[in-house]
Design brief:
alpha+beta, conserved putative lor/sdh protein from methanococcus maripaludis s2 fold, Elongation Factor Tu (Ef-tu), domain 3, six-stranded mixed beta sheet, six-stranded antiparallel β-barrel, rod-shaped
């Protein structure tokens, strides 16, 4: 007798098909979940930097890069243009004040000096001629004066004698009046000669004074011209080290062009570039620190340059205590420039997370250390080592401070040992 075989409802093929569909649906569901707001990600803690929030002393500061420069620098500019004829020293030489550095040649300037010297010589010669002429003229006037004096004395003698004789009626009236007229004439002649001699003396003095003034002006011009020619030999203005010398034999240098500089080697300063964002908070006497070879050196802002170039301005800082003995001109140092006094604050160490979050949130590690989740935070001031925490964290909390770039929009991290 035949037996009816019932058809199985759950065949192997059907079960595998359903399982495949369920697996695919689960994968899709997991993907949706992973990309949703509540997504999670397994992370190896060895690849993370986890820092603890602490409470301690805090001083707001910013890191700036500074270049070591001499405390005093004197620039060498071309006073009078010319061609480089001779170099006496090379770049880097130690100089003493007045020591020649190089010599420039300027034919036009040297010819001008020769012409000025000739003019002064001609004026001196003309003054000597004028002086001799004036002397001869004065001698002639004095001889004339002597003749006038003698004639007056003779006329006076005859007049006085005739005056007595006329009183005694020894001579007539006509002879007496004739002697009187001769005497009066010589008196007038004497007065006129005195006036002429006095006037000539005043004229001579005026001419000599004008000649002396003219000569003095020409001599001053000659001294200036000689100084210009002397400036063709460039000399060290102070004791120091010659640096940045830019001059080669035969090279033409124009007036005002920079030749180099003399660095005074009695100390150093740091010139730093600072972002213009801080320009209203930087002023003289702000303090800073620089670490070199494991040792910290104190600095103070001495000068603030208000000009902003390419979004940055400059400051000069000087060492307030010990100066490093192993620094060199042009060396770069990182300086921590303090913007506030020291206070007590809640602190979080700086890290790469800030580039992703902008300081608005962090991944805070749970108390059991098995996961980390997003929390909103607020920072205020910062230093090269720390952020000042205003809200969202408390001392003892642990935070992932390494970069978040690989986390995407993950909301929660599962921490694996």
């Amino acid at each position: 007798m035949d037996r009816k075989i019932e058809k199985k409802k759950w065949s192997t093929k059907r079960i595998m098909t359903i399982a495949g569909i369920a697996g695919l649906a689960g994968l899709i569901g997991w993907s949706i979940y992973a990309t949703s707001g509540g997504s999670k990600l397994n992370v190896d803690t060895e690849r993370l930097t986890i820092s603890e929030v602490t409470k301690g002393p805090f001083k707001e500061s910013i890191p700036v890069n500074g270049v070591v420069m001499p405390l005093t620098t004197i620039y060498l500019d071309v006073m009078e243009g010319g061609r480089v004829e001779e170099k006496f020293v090379d770049d880097g030489a130690m100089m003493t004040k007045g020591q020649p550095i190089l010599r420039l040649g300027n034919t036009d300037l040297e010819l001008s000096l020769a012409s000025q010297e000739t003019q002064v010589y001609n004026v001196l010669t003309q003054m000597n001629i004028s002086k001799n002429n004036a002397t001869q003229n004065t001698i002639g006037k004095l001889n004339q004066m002597a003749e006038v004096d003698n004639a007056l004395k003779e006329a006076d003698r005859v007049f006085q004698l005739n005056k007595k004789l006329f009183a005694e009626k020894a001579i007539g009236l006509q002879e007496f009046q004739q002697s009187e007229n001769a005497y009066n004439y010589q008196v007038r002649r004497k007065k006129l000669t005195d006036d002429i001699l006095k006037q000539d003396d005043e004229v001579i003095k005026l001419m000599q004074s004008q000649d002396r003034e003219s000569l003095a002006k020409m001599q001053n011009t000659l001294q200036l011209m000689r100084k210009k020619v002397g400036d063709l030999v460039v000399r060290a203005p102070i004791d120091g080290q010659l640096t940045s010398l830019d001059a080669e034999i035969g090279q033409l240098k124009n007036k005002g062009e920079r030749l180099g500089q003399i660095d005074v080697t009695n100390g150093f300063k740091i010139r730093a570039d600072i972002d213009e964002h801080y320009i209203n908070r930087i002023y003289t006497d702000l303090t800073g620190e620089a670490t070199l070879a494991g040792k910290t050196y104190k600095l103070k802002v001495k000068k603030v340059y208000s000009q902003v170039t390419n979004g940055r301005f400059q400051v000069d800082m000087e060492f307030t205590g010990e100066t490093p003995g192993n620094i060199r001109r042009g060396q770069t140092l990182q300086v921590s420039l303090a913007l506030s006094d020291e206070t007590t604050a809640t602190l979080l160490p700086r890290g790469g997370f800030y580039q992703k979050t902008g300081g608005n949130w962090v991944f805070k590690v749970s108390e059991d250390g098995k996961k980390a989740y997003k929390v909103d935070v607020q920072f205020n001031r910062q230093s090269p080592e720390y952020y000042e925490v205003v809200s969202g964290l408390k001392p003892g909390d642990k935070v992932i401070t390494s970069s978040y770039e690989n986390f995407g929009d993950i909301q929660e991290l599962i921490l694996k040992e």
